Amino acid sequence: MASMELVADNKLLNVGLLLVATLIVAKLLSVLLLPRSNKRLPPVVKAWPVLGGLVRFLRGPVVMLRQEYPKLGSVFTLSFLNKNITFLIGPEVSAHFFKASESDLSQQEVYQFNVPTFGPGVVFDVDYSVRQEQFRFFTESLRVTKLKGYVDYMVAEAEEYFSKWGDSGEVDLKYELEHLIILTASRCLLGEEVRNKLFDDVSALFHDLDNGMLPISVIFPYLPIPAHRRRDEARKKLSGIFANIIGSRKQAGKSENDMLQSFMDSKYKDGRPTTESEVTGLLIAALFAGQHTSSITSTWTGAYLLRHKEYLAAVLDEQKDLMKKHGNRVDHDILSEMEVLYRCIKEALRLHPPLIMLLRSSHSDFSVKTKEGKEYDIPKGHIVATSPAFANRLPHVYKNPDTYDPDRFAAGRDEDKAAGAFSYISFGGGRHGCLGEPFAYLQIKAIWSHLLRNFELELISPFPEIDWNAMVVGVKGKVMVRYKRKELSLN
Ligand code: HEM
């Protein structure tokens, strides 16, 4: 009886042990496997099946973000067809977006639509290792030593352009600044041959390139439509023009201080020099990156300064101080002293970043933790996005985020740093942060210091609205300004 009981007890014990062992193994397996098999996926935006998500995105990505962020938080996914776009909004969740290596988060797929515009063999048409070298060429062409020379052109172009204005009048500031920036960019980037002899031809060709980049081009860059045909023709003609210029510079043994020269002189690590076609492609890329973005920013800066008299007074006082110190001279170092003007530009750019959406394609799973402590796993294969236009106005990062307040960047407040890196993302940041940021500020400061020193200006049209439909988001309609030529009095 006793032995029977012992056997029964043993059986019970064995079953018990087996149960415990099974539970432990199950627990272990769940710990090991759950993060893979049961991901903590971000919440998904509600939309009609198949194309609903796309429709919501195309109707206005920032409108969609404004609606979804309060409901879903800083990390959420928009799905359509077989695509998933996961948005990472705010400094707490976007570090990986900006810092990840190209093998984890890449640009090539999502920015592929630029290839027919920039041309073959450059930027998004080449492997990352080559692209990295080409970005090194950009960095070299925008070094301080080069920028110093470019500033002299910027100042000269502004002087010449505004010398053609009368003693008083009314102008569309947007149109005027767009033109001045094309002229300046031509001089600094494309070189004196284009600026002085071929400006009209080259501008017309760039116009065709520009008009060949439509929202539909992002999805179907090679669609056989007239705008794309004109784009391809223009690209070919530009290639011919730059091949001639490069040829004659080489023949004459001439060297200039411009981006064209810098790209001509650039060499890959293996010693190979750049080809004419690559130089053309890199110049087109530079113009696309820098031209609309800078002209839009200079127009917003003007609109805000003319609307907010207190900041206009502050930038005028700064100009007076600098004129007392340096006379009428303006160069790279003097522009760099314009801190108040810098903050006014930076604040216009916080409110109106021309690149409203930045994208990457994810090649490995990663996790993010929100400021509320929620963790999400973002699977590889997702497109990952962040939005300067939305993230730059987060109320937990910026006080009264919709108010124009350049002093928020002043020492002591430093609102762009207080909430951590990637709080201010008009120029992106991290691994792919804008290489032209110093160039852009110098150019906009050169224009505005000239205007402030030589004219009294008044905004006579209503404060401009945002043109959300443009590829590079800018100012809608005209920005009419009344001007009177009047040198800034130092008293
Ligand atoms: C106000 C003017 C400008 C704004 C707002 C601006 C904005 C940006 C942004 C947001 C990015 C990052 C894109 C991304 O992460 O996907 C970027 C990258 C870049 N920008 Fe700018 N940009 C400006 C002017 C310029 C100028 C003047 C140039 C050159 C002359 C330039 C050259 C570049 C280049 C080469 C990159 C690519 C960097 C990389 O991927 O490593 N930008 N810019």
What features would you describe in this structure?
The protein is α+β, with helices and mostly antiparallel strands and 491 residues long. The protein has a single domain, classed as Orthogonal Bundle (Cytochrome p450), CATH 1.10.630.10. It has helices at 2-37, 52-59, 61-72, 95-99, 115-118, 128-141, 144-163, 173-190, 192-197, 199-211, 215-219, 226-252, 259-265, 276-307, 309-326, 332-336, 339-351, 388-391, 415-418, 437-454, and strands at 75-80, 83-88, 105-106, 168-172, 358-362, 366-369, 375-378, 383-386, 455-459, 465-467, 474-476, 480-485. The chain has a 5-stranded mixed sheet. The protein has a 3-stranded antiparallel sheet with strand order 4-12-9. It has a two-stranded antiparallel sheet with strand order 6-7. Helix 2 (52-59) crosses helix 3. The chain is globular and about 70 Å long. The model is unreliable at 1-8 and 19-37 (pLDDT under 50). It binds protoporphyrin IX containing FE. Protoporphyrin IX containing FE (HEM) binds next to helix 6, helix 14 and helix 20. Protoporphyrin IX containing FE (HEM) is lined by residues 135, 138, 286, 289-290, 293-294, 297, 353-355, 358, 426-428, 432, 434-436, 439-440. Its cofactor is heme. InterPro entries: CYP450_sterol_14alpha_dmase (IPR050529), Cyt_P450 (IPR001128), Cyt_P450_CS (IPR017972), Cyt_P450_E_grp-IV (IPR002403), Cyt_P450_sf (IPR036396).
